[in-house]
Amino acid sequence: MRSYVKRALENMAANLFLTGTTLFTIALSVLIAGAFLLFFENAARITGDWKQGIQVMAYLDASFTPEDLAEVTADLRTIHGVEDICFISREASLEQLQGGLASSGVILSDLGENPLPHTLEILLSSTLDTLDDVDAFVAAAQKKAHVQEVLYGHGWVETFLPMVNTLKMGALGLGSLFMIMALFVSANTVRLAFCAKQEEIEIMHLVGATEAFVNTPFYLEGIFQGGCGGTLGLAILFSLFRWVRGGIPLEASIIPLLEIQFLSFPMVALIMSAGIFLGWLGCFISLKQN
Amino acid sequence: MKRKRSIIQLFDVSKQYGARYALKNITLSVKPGELVFITGASGAGKSTLLSLLYLATPVSQGQIIVEGMNLARLSPEKIPYLRRRFGVIFQDFKLISHRSVYDNISLVLEAAGQPSGVIKKKVGEVLERTGMTEYKDALPPSLSGGEQQKVAVARAVVGDPDIILADEPTGSLDARSAEVITHYLMEYKEKGTTLLIASHNTELINRTGYDALYTLEAGELTQPGGKIGTAMNPTTGEEMEGGMN
Asked: Chain A closest CA to B78's CA: distance in Å?
């Protein structure tokens, strides 16, 4: 193994420019993909985790009594996409309303009978991430017994869901694009190194070297470049993160700065693994073609 | 008369490059431990013949059997293992220019998966025997042709091969170095290693003697000369051991 590592290091030293280009491209890909992931992780945390899904309100009819709650809840749970259901009695709703209006001086004591219905707050699963999914759920819920009306912030969801989905697709698209670019550069670096060493490789074969003996240093090279590129990309991202966060005055921030954190450890591990895999895959593709 | 199984056999072997024959209908055999010379003018096909044996190039026609293995049926995965049985001294040395003399020689043992202790010991031995110890860290381009040839010889013998194929092994050496290297190769012959040497150096041939001498002319084998002892009996196919000088 020491001999393979030695030859891999010699290969890289002999092709410093190519090695540097590959390392930089992988670092850039990791930086861009990492920046998107950083944004998503923090956005999820700050917005109370948008991944938890959308909340809809099911207003129950006048015939509903709290004794029917278990049956209605079970019935609603038969529809795909229910994460959680919370019952709010009409009394609790009125109290909430009174509490909300107290500051504006409006008094509801003259209302007489409580006009508000019993309500179920339904939290939808994050798997329902399109408008059609949410509409389908609402339509199904409205057919259930005791459910009079189901409402959700249609306008907000209409804006929010496509925005999140666009960002997701953008991140995926750009990330994939840069990953492909890194793969292409990595594969070509190995191919060029392979061509530059054609004579040496031929001699190795002539003295009885197996394919594994010849190719292993190239794989090590790919893995090393992927690992170093990943580390470099993450280091740059971390520096930029510290710099940007440090540059925003606490009082000027619309969101609590302490809630903005760097990528979680699993995410860092995932990005590093992706970098290493990228280096290896580039080498694999290149050697398969030679 | 004693029968001996051949270590190398060529049956009606031809090698074509386009329409041109580099070798045509070659049939010969070599027994274990023999010293065999292939001689002939430049371009007669000597190097091509050797290259067919270690599968640097495939035959166009005919069959080659080495140590009982039919080379035409050898899977690509097994080729490296066949090549490890050979020690090849290339006419153009084929040394890796950016690797040291030591690394060039140790490559054979590294490729064979030998432990580092064994590599160090064996490489040290061959360097000493070829008088190249002081150049072990040198890069091949910094060496003279003769010195490079010594490195090529050292690399060929370091793996203790069953067969040494040598293409003009003393071609770049001065008289003194040629004598040292020849003597060194003959030691391997004494140890039972088979030597197949392509050379047009008659002095070398006469000095070492031989078990068989084949002459190539324009890719075809001419009838061996008087000192030749080994040939296949064309009617029975039996091989006979001949006398050595």
From this structure: 9
String of DSSP letters for B179-202? HHHHHHHHHHHHTT-EEEEE---H
Residue B55 pLDDT > 80: yes
Stretch B31-43: mean pLDDT? 90
Residue contact B98–A14, C-beta within 8 A? yes
Fill in the amino acid letter for A35: A
Find chain B residues with C-beta within 8 A of A203's C-beta: 94-96, 107
Q: Provide the 3-class DSSP secondary structure of residue A152.
A: coil
Size of interface A-B (CB pairs under 8 A): 45
How far apart CA A253 and CA A5 sit, in angstroms, is 49
Residue type, B150: K
Q: What is the pLDDT of residues A156-192, one digit of tens each?
A: 666 666 776 677 777 777 777 777 777 777 777 777 7
> For chain B, how far is it from start to end, CA to CA, in angstroms?
17
Mutate to test the interface with A, among B50, B94, B114, B122 (most CBs of A within 10 A): B94
Residues in a beta bridge with A88: A119
- Stronger pLDDT, B82 or A40, i.e. the higher one: B82
CB contact under 8 A, B80 and A206: no
Please state whether the predicted TM-score (pTM) of the whole model is above 0.80.
no
Query: What is the tens place of the pLDDT at every residue in A208-217?
Result: 999 889 888 8
Q: What pLDDT band is residue B196 in, cutting at 50, 70 and 90?
A: very high
Closest CA to B158 of B204, B81, B103, B208: B103
Provide the mean pLDDT of chain A. Answer: 80
Nearest Cβ partner for B111 among A2, A200, A209:
A209
Measure in Å the smallest separation between the Cα of A226 and chain B Cα atoms: 26
* Residues in chain A closer than 8 A to B108 (CB atoms): 207-208
Q: Where would I find the beta strands (DSSP E) of chain B?
A: 8-17, 20-30, 35-40, 61-66, 69-70, 86-89, 163-167, 194-198, 212-217, 220-222
Q: What is the residue whose two structure tokens read 């580099």?
A: B22
Closest CA to B62 of B22, B20, B26, B8: B26
pLDDT tens by residue, B117-130? 999 999 999 999 88
Domain boundaries, chain A: 2-48+160-289, 55-151
Residues of B in contact with A4 (CB under 8 A): none
The Cα angle at residue B170 between residues B164 and B175, in degrees rounded to 5: 140
Between CA A57 and CA A150 the distance in angstroms is 6
The share of chain B scoring above pLDDT 90, in percent, equals 54
How much of chain A exceeds pLDDT 70, in percent? 82
Is the pLDDT reported for residue A251 higher than 90? no
Q: Which of A15, A197, A207, A214 should we substitute to test contact with B (largest number of B Cβ atoms within 10 Å)? A: A207
Rounded to whole angstroms, how far apart are CA atoms A109 and A92? 15
Instruction: Give the per-residue pLDDT at A221.
Output: 85
CATH, domain range A55-151: 3.30.70.3040
